[in-house]
Design brief:
The complex is a heterodimer of chains A (about 425) and B (about 300). Chain A has two domains: about 180 residues, D-Maltodextrin-Binding Protein, domain 2 (3-Layer(aba) Sandwich), CATH 3.40.190; about 200 residues, D-Maltodextrin-Binding Protein, domain 2 (3-Layer(aba) Sandwich), CATH 3.40.190.10. Helices cover about 45% and strands about 15% of the residues of chain A. In chain A, strands 1, 2, 3, 6, 12, 13 and 14 form a seven-stranded mixed sheet that branches. In chain A, α2 links the parallel β1 and β2. In chain A, α17 runs antiparallel to α18. The longest helix of chain A is centred in the N-terminal third of the chain and has 21 residues. Chain A starts with a helix and ends with a helix. In chain A, about 45% of the residues are buried. Chain B folds into two domains: about 40 residues; about 180 residues, MetI-like (MetI-like fold). In chain B, strands 1-2 form a two-stranded antiparallel sheet. In chain B, a hairpin with a 7-residue loop joins β1 and β2. Classes of the chains: A alpha/beta (about 425), B mainly alpha (about 300). Chains A and B meet through α3 and α17 of A and loops of B.
Chain lengths: ~425, ~300
């Protein structure tokens, strides 16, 4: 039996090998899909690359990953099946960089004439580890204070400005809350001046504005229970607990702050540039503006969210993969993404092309923003600090107790990670 | 059985023995061939996975760098890990509430549907429907039912009760909310087991009891219930194992929150393995869960699975 089918098998195998040899090198490009627009933009870019820029014998293939992105990519990396070029979020960057799972890009950048200085420093700095660059950021976001013009008008409170301080924010919130009954007549959904979630990514800027930080200077200890950070948490939760001028999204049946703002439950929220496409497509009637976050006692502070394209360390076709990466972060690709109103370019030279005032506000925040990352701790601090914030909001712990508990757990984890 | 009279196998009669051996060999071989596909899948996806989990439990492994030997460090760490204590407490609380209620409810359904009522088949199908619905779908539907402006709060408000409960957002109500949902969706599965067992109980025994003067309640507690003992054992053991391993509903509905109030052992294992990439620690946790399940099953076997004869 076997003898009879053996020649057939052999021929099949040879034909198969010949077919593979003649086939193009496929460079797989993966990312998550935040909205249908994102996958459409990516497909357009990949098609453009294949038709105009791809060297002979190379073809880029877009393979989006719809859910559980970090888990999927890390298991693919372990199985050596990772895409050749993929998105990687800043807060997950250091764990991968320190384990040597990503390909250092310095030599490839030098060979292709890509100068790191062309990119916003904080963005590229976030993907630099041990003096090597592991990713080229594709776009970024910072936070801004979004306000509902109609509610401010009814309350007779002047619109926020870029030079607001913590006191101005609190005073305006109180002034709006005092007019709650009047506002409700015109805006029936109105609940509170502010919507503030127990979200680390919204509270951390207050820590920076108060002179605190997550790590100590040489990043060997977590100092999120410092007096500055505790004061920042007290101030943040105080809007709701002490002054009654803020609500949490979960209390009013909203999934997140942006939704509460869109439904006009709140007059102000602190959110990022993603608000603009969200509001214009879901709540086109809401008139809004945005200014930089208010300054705290220690000045301005903000968070920088960014995503880079990276290449796995064991990449078989590094030059070809980098060529695709170079195209995706090129001025042409970034201008196209910007024109679709999707995200801000990481190339400094393109900053001048940002005309929309809200996008300019978001871009301005990058000047003093700190990257949204927790070094080798990955996403663990997000879980621990969210729990700490929830405990304070629910009155189970004081800000000091909650942050002490979180800092204890995080310092133990940091010791474990740094030990090997 | 050896035939009597022939003390030894005669040297001149080897043939039947060889034939016997051949036939037996063939039979054994056939058996192995028939179970081979399943054994293969089982050894790769179950036995190998179990062995590897045991191996990983004593190593440090983040998927990216090769595993390094860690001795018993993972296990030592477990006992000082506050998350483990929270998860263990939540899991035991969950199991202790869900198993008795779900078993009682399943028995109640079964007794009810064993009565000769009209549309009995319709009711059986209707009661069973939640069990064949995917838990993911049920979870997604219940997120809306439990929403602050959802149906449950609406019904409460109709009854004049406090109606602004943030079911899944409040640490005091999140786990009980998931418990209620799971009792409702799992009880019918076990109802089927009880229904089958109820139909196996001979009418003659119940009639005899009735003639002896036992009323309906006495017949139920003195005849039916003891005869259901093997089924009760099965339902309690399977229910306990299911409860100790509760995961998907939590993953969909609360992701362990708020304030870790719904973090169960299995969710902790998942988050350590696939969010924090501490495969070794997660494997050690899963070994602890295995020991817990084994212990509880042994205890239940001793106290429930007692043979009853009439």
């Amino acid at each position: 039996m076997f003898r009879r089918i053996f020649p057939v098998l052999l021929i099949g195998l040879l034909v198969g090998i010949a077919g593979v040899a003649a086939e193009k090198i496929a460079i797989r490009v993966s990312g998550w899909v935040s909205s249908p627009v994102e996958s459409e933009i990516m497909q357009t870019l990949v098609d453009l690359y294949n038709s105009q820029f791809a060297p002979p014998g190379v073809e880029a293939v877009y393979e989006p990953i719809p859910a559980d992105y970090p888990t999927k990519i890390q298991t693919m990396l372990a199985a050596r099946k990772a895409p050749d070029v993929f998105y990687w979020d800043i807060f997950m960057a250091e764990p991968l960089m320190r384990k040597g799972a990503l390909l250092p890009l310095d030599d490839l950048m030098a060979a292709a004439g890509v100068d790191p200085a062309e990119f916003v420093d904080t963005c590229i700095g976030a993907f630099t580890y041990g003096g090597k660059i592991y990713g080229i950021p594709k776009d970024f976001n910072t936070l801004a204070l979004f306000y509902n013009k109609k509610i401010f008008d009814i309350a007779g409170v002047p619109y926020p400005t870029a030079d607001w301080t913590w006191e101005d924010l609190l005073a305006a919130a109180k002034a709006i809350q005092a007019k709650a009954d009047e506002i409700k007549k015109a805006v029936p959904n109105f609940q509170a001046a502010l919507c503030m979630a127990p979200d680390v990514a919204r509270w951390l800027p207050f820590v920076f504005q108060n002179g605190g930080s997550f790590f100590n200077a040489d990043r060997t200890a977590v100092v999120i229970n410092s007096p500055e950070a505790v004061k920042a948490l007290e101030f943040y939760t105080g809007f709701e607990l002490e002054h009654g001028v803020a609500v949490r999204p979960s209390e009013i049946g909203a999934g997140w702050q942006g939704e509460a703002f869109g439904k006009e439950n709140a007059a102000m929220v602190m959110e990022g540039g993603w608000m603009v496409p969200f509001l214009t497509s879901n709540f086109p009637d809401v008139e809004f503006g945005a200014v930089e976050l208010p300054a705290g006692p220690a000045g301005k502070g903000n968070l920088l969210f960014t995503v880079a394209y990276v290449i796995p360390a064991y990449e078989k076709h590094p030059a070809e993969a980098f060529d695709v990466l170079k195209f995706l972060t090129s001025p042409l690709a970034q201008m196209y993404v910007l024109s679709r109103g999707f995200a801000l370019p990481t190339r400094k030279a393109l900053g001048g092309f940002i005309t929309d005032p809200i996008s300019r506000t978001i871009f301005a925040g990058a000047a003093y923003a700190r990257p949204w990352e927790f070094g080798p701790l990955g996403s663990k601090p997000i879980d621990e600090l969210s729990a700490a914030m929830e405990a304070v909001f629910l009155g189970k712990k004081t800000a000091q107790e909650a942050l002490n508990d979180a800092a204890k757990v995080l310092n133990e984890r940091l010791k474990e990670v740094l030990s090997g | 059985m050896r035939p009597s009279g022939t003390g030894t196998r005669g040297a001149g009669r080897p043939a039947p023995l060889v034939w016997f051996r051949r036939a037996r060999t063939r039979e054994i071989l056939t058996a192995y061939v028939l179970i081979a596909p399943h054994m293969l899948a089982l050894s790769v996806f179950t036995f190998f996975a179990m062995g590897f989990a045991f191996y990983l439990g004593f190593h440090r492994y983040d998927l990216l760098s090769p595993p390094t030997f860690a001795g018993a460090r993972n296990f030592v760490r477990i006992f000082t890990d506050p998350d483990f204590h929270i998860a263990l407490r939540n899991t035991i609380y969950y199991t202790a509430v869900v198993v008795p209620i779900q078993t009682a409810l399943a028995l109640f359904y079964a007794v009810l549907l064993n009565q000769p009522v009209r549309l009995r088949t319709f009711f059986r199908a209707a009661f069973y429907a939640p069990s064949v619905t995917a838990s993911i779908v049920i979870s997604l539907v219940f997120i809306w039912l439990y929403a602050k402006q959802g149906i449950f709060n609406y019904l409460l408000s109709k009854l004049g009760l406090p109606a602004s409960i943030d079911w899944l957002g409040n640490p005091a109500t999140a786990l009980p909310a998931i418990m209620m949902m799971n009792i409702w969706s799992t009880a019918p599965t076990f109802m089927v087991v009880f229904l089958a067992a109820l139909q196996d109980i001979p009418d003659s025994l119940l009639e005899a009891a009735a003639i002896d003067g036992a009323n309906a309640w006495q017949r139920f507690t003195r005849v039916t219930l003891p005869l259901l003992r093997p089924s009760i054992f099965f339902v309690v053991v399977m229910g306990t194992i299911g409860c100790l391993q509760v995961f998907d509903q939590i993953y969909i509905m609360t992701r362990g929150g708020p304030l870790k109030s719904t973090m169960t052992l299995n969710y902790l294992i998942y988050s350590e393995a696939f969010e924090n990439f501490r495969m070794g620690y997660a494997a050690a946790l899963s070994l602890i869960l295995f020991v817990l399940i084994l212990l509880l099953t042994v205890i239940q076997k001793r106290y429930i699975d007692v043979e009853v004869q009439y």
